[in-house]
Amino acid sequence: xxTKDYVIKVIDKIKTRDNNEPEFIQAVEEVYTxxxxxxxxxxxxxxxNILERLSEPERMIIFKVPWVDDAGNIQVNRGxxxxxxxxxxxxKGGLRFAENVNLSIVKFLAFEQxxxxxxxxxxxxxxxGGSDFSPLNKSDAEIKRFTQSFMLELSRHIGGDIDSxxxxxxxxxREIGYLFGHYxxxxxxxxxxxxxxxSVAISGSILRPxxxxxxxxxxxxEVLHEFNEDIKGKTIAVSGFxxxxxxxxxxxxxxxxxxxxxxxxxxxxxxxxxxxxEAKLNYLLKMRADINGDLRDYAKEFNCEFFSNxxxxxxxxxxxxxxxxxxxxxxxDAKAIVNNxxxxxxxxxxxxITKEAMEYLKTHDVIVGPGKAxxxxxxxxxxxxxxxxxxxxxxxxxEVDQKLAGIMKNIYLSCKQAAQEYGYGYDLVxxxxxxxxxxxxxxxxxxxxx
Length: 450
Ligand code: 2IT
What we know:
By secondary structure, the chain is α/β, with parallel strands linked by helices. The protein is built from 18 helices and 13 strands. Strands 1-2-4-3-5 form a 5-stranded mixed beta sheet, with helices on both faces. It has a 5-stranded parallel beta sheet with strand order 7-6-11-12-13, sandwiched between helices. A hairpin with a 5-residue loop joins strand 1 and strand 2 (74-85). Helix 6 (103-119) crosses helix 18, helix 10 packs antiparallel against helix 11 (278-289) and helix 16 (377-390) packs across helix 17. The structure holds (2Z)-2-iminopentanedioic acid. (2Z)-2-iminopentanedioic acid binds at residues 92-94, 116, 166, 168, 196-197, 350, 378-379, 382.
């Protein structure tokens, strides 16, 4: 059997076995298809059945999360933790609290995390978790009770040398604070590296909140430099208005670029002056902290237009940076992007581009910066947080930022080199998959047949 048929056979088996997990299948298909030229040179990896072993999570925990709401009623949500691969380090990855969270979404995020974490060069395996609980419209007391109930079960499965969760959509410093506080009580141990994204006051890392967005800006800058361009003076369309978006706007502003859109599920704002003043950046934090926070308030506050039920991808800009969620940029959006002659799309969120849109962008010469590389700054600083926790020390903002910038540069170079080496030219998407895969595959081989 030739290598391509072998890869298709492996993917088909996953499609049959996990046929109710579309996001997971999408993530696996993208990564495995890009590995064909690697496997052609590495029959040993086929012989060792690495692909099938790598797509089976080492452990999946699904648990009941009961909690009492403010009216005294007992509510029940579903909790997840997928411990996907620990070949290069303890499982590491965020927790997502949002209504649409299900096993397929947690599995795809955990699978992506394996390669992302590998790309960082740091010793962290892939994991992810979450719940179909949404903190929106919940009181602080409800969030506290929910997170404590969630941690009561999760605490049995995590630890600084086992699995270290952090934040993601719906989980910020407040939720992490409640989660860590309860973890500490249950374990009777200040295992700081067992949870990251903590506030600085409880052993968190300086710059962790900014890290994902800063990393995306550093990655975008590397891509632009490749084409003798600079982020300075660029006009950028961004989606979302959460943590990733905020960090990116902050660094983009510092580097002299102009982010002209923000979005929510209800529509987008167009701010031609750019989201670049302290007042605007702080307003993003305020909207997020407010349970009724709405992007329309930004439009009112800063006197700009809100486009109801539209996406920002219709804008003629220099650079597009999706920072909201998976599959937020579809084929129609890709066509608009090509039509507007936008040359660069850098993925801020995890798997924001649908399969069809990705194919369209690539065949129309749009340069795509893959999320698993571009957004790896967040988990990188999480890993630096673990290091600081273990040595019981904390680095300054300059030290963390310098390390982050170095990590992002290395990630970029490894994507670029892997793409070149395996005949993909400047396809950073394929390069990220290959480079992330090879480090994990070697580590699996060394450790035997797990
Ligand atoms: O998608 C991600 O990389 C995250 N949500 C952050 C994970 C982490 O452990 O900081």
